[in-house]
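On clarity, I found the account of how folds are encoded harder to follow than it need be. Since the whole study asks how a given chain folds, the encoding of that fold should be made plain. For the editor and my fellow referees, an illustration may be useful. An entry of this sort, consisting of the sequence and the corresponding backbone structure tokens, reads as follows:

:::
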Amino acid sequence: MKLLECRLSIDDLDSFVADLADVGDRFDVTIQAFDARYVADRRHLERAVELADRSIDRGENVARDRAVEILLYAAGRRQIDRALEMGVSEGVNPAVVLIDALRVEPEPDERHGEITDRPSADRADAEARALEAVRDLEAVVATERTLDDRDESRLCTFFDVTDAEREATDASLPMLVHERVTLLEVEK
């Protein structure tokens, strides 16, 4: 998984989403753009990808599209319309764009009857090339650290983390958000 931390200036959201889909199709990767103010940290998105893939593997996914399933887990919600709040919108957005290669089952090496590691190298290359293509999109006006300046108030409100909960534990806010992501799996 690769992340592009950036500032986006989006004039037409549908056109931007279509551009991301085109890049995803071209490099056989999943791309999802998030408003960085709703992302606790990198692990938040890594866990969302892991759980979305597990849900898809089990046939328990809500969304038909892998990018939307990842968004649902990242948001800790089963309702797509509520999860979309975590996505980017028209105007200027601090953003994190997630790029993750589609999983490919390892193929046996016909000469030796062994499983090879070639698919993982191919995945990394596809992710790197897709990252460059996303970086070149007109909507990307700057690449800058966006995960370092998380909006704690927004995170607490969106993920329903109360002051009482924060006072009752020594867990960090990102850890509490990770818990919300994981709880979505339990609530199914």
Q: What stands out?
A: The mean pLDDT is 90. Residues 108 and 115 are 4 Å apart (CA to CA).
